[in-house]
Amino acid sequence: MNRCKKWLVSTVAAIFIFLILSAAAVAVVDPFFQYHAPLENFPYLVDNQLAQNPGMAKHMEYDSVILGSSMTVNFNTHWFEEFLGLHAIKLSYSGAYPKDQANIMDIIFDSSHEVKSVFLGVDVTTYTGGVDETKYPIPAYLYDDNYLNDVQYLLNKDVLLNYVLRPLADPDKTDLATVYQSWWTDEYYNIQWVMHNYEPPAAVLQETPADAYIASTDKNLQANLCPYIEQNPDTTFYIFFPPYSILYWNDVRQENHMEATMREYAYIAQTLLAYDNVRIFYFPNQEEIVTDLNNYADYTHYHRDINRYMTECFATGNCEVTCAGEMAQALDETRDMIERFDFEALFSVDY
Question: Model-level pTM?
Fold first, then answer.
């Protein structure tokens, strides 16, 4: 009995010590940045937007933030310093819904940072969903201030193995200037690759009513964006509409919601232009970009050179719309581009 008791006590003690050491290793390295900024010499792997963005928002050094979906992942934060003199951090969420942006802005604006600028890519398709809808379930214990539930972080096997031990064994520190950048290398950005993988949707005969998206869009704006603009008047919000390829507009045509989509763009712009601390940039009418499928890796995702061009525009004011009239003109230019484009010739080629 004494042997069994000693073995049991030793085993429990060993397990307890292992758990304490594991939790200590996670807390000291803190690969999700929940407690402190990165250690200077540790080769951090940053590849988990849901888990690592909240900690970066809390503890990284920055004065500006890049937010949005995968339309923003190819931004290089060095460009924002080069063109705008800003120390930016990128906190993208692939497929992000408005609520995803609100969740991270809660943390950004509750932190001690003085945020000069927010660069937010608005994907109109996501503003038609529910105000509480997120792309993926978030790990709530990383988004709150309750340290008691951090046991899910500190005693997490995947965190210990993949974000503490693996980087030590194979050090390849993530460059935060280009963090989350898309996996597509330059050879994927060509018309052959895009068209080979593109499947047009089935044609819809009944047209979507022009005001179909307004109610849900307004709810999302009022719940997930406007409060942050109103509560932070010293922060400039650069709201931009990304330049999806002409194939995106083919989808809109086929699905028969062109006017509803145009009305949604106009409504978002009209609502946000009422704020003095908002600047709006509209890129879907950039014909040389949108109609050249060699700029894309699929029907919406563009090359990082386009991200650099947009950064330059933020600095120069090119592609900015400052009133409802300019937005209406930009939308008319987009309509005209779509009407003039030869879709038949595009689809007649065997790729």
Answer: 0.95
pLDDT tens column, 277-289: 999 999 999 999 9
pLDDT, tens digit (0-9, with 9 covering 90-100), for 255-282: 999 999 999 999 999 999 999 999 999 9
Instruction: Report the C-alpha gap between 93 and 68 in whole angstroms.
Output: 6
Assign 3-state DSSP to the chain and report helix, strand, coil percentages, each to 5.
55, 10, 40
The CATH topology of domain 62-146+173-347 is: Rossmann fold (3.40.50)
- Amino acid in position 303: H
What residues does each domain of the chain span?
62-146+173-347
pLDDT: which is higher, 350 or 241: 241
CA distance 309 to 296: 14
Quote the CA–CA distance of 56 and 39 in Å, as a whole number: 13
pLDDT bin (cut points 50, 70, 90) of residue 312 is very high
DSSP single-letter state for residue 309 = H
Residue 318 · residue 309 · CB < 8 Å: no
Who's near 216: CB < 8 A, 6+ residues apart?
127, 128, 129, 130
- For residue 12, the model assigns a pLDDT of 67
Share of the chain above pLDDT 70, in %: 97
Q: Where are the alpha helices (DSSP H) in the chain?
A: 2-29, 49-59, 77-84, 98-110, 151-154, 157-158, 166-169, 191-197, 214-224, 226-231, 246-255, 258-272, 287-290, 304-316, 324-340, 343-347
Q: What tokens were used for 208?
A: 């979507």
